[in-house]
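fyi for ur records
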Amino acid sequence: MIVRDTPSADWDAFVAAAPAASLTHLSGWTELAREVFGHRVLFIEARDASGTLKGVLPIVQQRHWLLGNYATSVAFFTYGGAVASDPDVAEQLMRRATEAADSLGCRYLEFRDTRERAVHWTRRSDKVALCLDLPRTFEELGKRLGSKLRSQVKRAEREGLERRIGGVELLDAFYAVFAENMRDLGTPVYPKRFFEAILRRFEPHCRLMVIDWQGRPAAAGFLTFWRDRAEIPWASCRLDAKRAGVNMKLYWEVLALAIERGCTAFDFGRSTVDSGTERFKRQWGAQPVPLYWYRWERGERGAAATPSTQDQGRMMRFATNIWQRLPLRVANRLGPLISGALPW
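which gave:
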């Protein structure tokens, strides 16, 4: 097992050929954490006796004076974990990663895997992905979605909405909606440069969609495409626009775009189990897919230092209530200073 600060030249070719790999296993997504937020990143590789790459595991270490020292595979995104055709190799990569995390003083290391592993670490069960199988045509999907949902979209369309699809040229419009929505949710916003870095590095894999209402951006989504799959990791709608159904129009249009691009599956992103966002996504026919997020912790001492789930919930509610009360300009100034250190 080799631990590197930069990926080997054959890393991305290995990921591209691995059926179980996600878009965010490509080395550039991990490097974003270093380039945008200054985090330390590790690329753990498994090779056979001839030097052929047999498995990869990207790691991001996050350190903050208040939030502590921890690591994730991969931070900021839903999918990470080890990629290897041999389960034993994957588990060896994971064990090597825990040794590296331990040497860095990390309190814990979270593997954002998509499959069950024969490991003894705790698995989180509060998050699921919501995924929808797509038909060949959008007309077929419209029939499947039902008359009630279609009528909600038609109502929104009577508001004179306009759709825009593009790349970095729509970033300002996307970010204006996203930043306001994050403040309303009580969550520190990512810096705009984070999304710009993604769009410039992965332009063929990314599209922005903006829905304009009453002359300004009202809803927006950030879409990624990988193989035959589309994902919307970030979507936002202004509160006043939700009452007009603009958020419904946004999802209607992103699903249409996914089918137009030949996708056979649409990933609505992760949600907390039994949350309002999970219920919203399920009305589109999305089904929950378990996420195998395993967590290694540093022995008894590290575990004792980790706040309980109940304490974490109380702290989160307190911080959320404060953040929601901040003026938008203040939240947008402070959010980018904090968001990169949060365990997204």
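The longest helix spans residues 87-103. thats all i got for now
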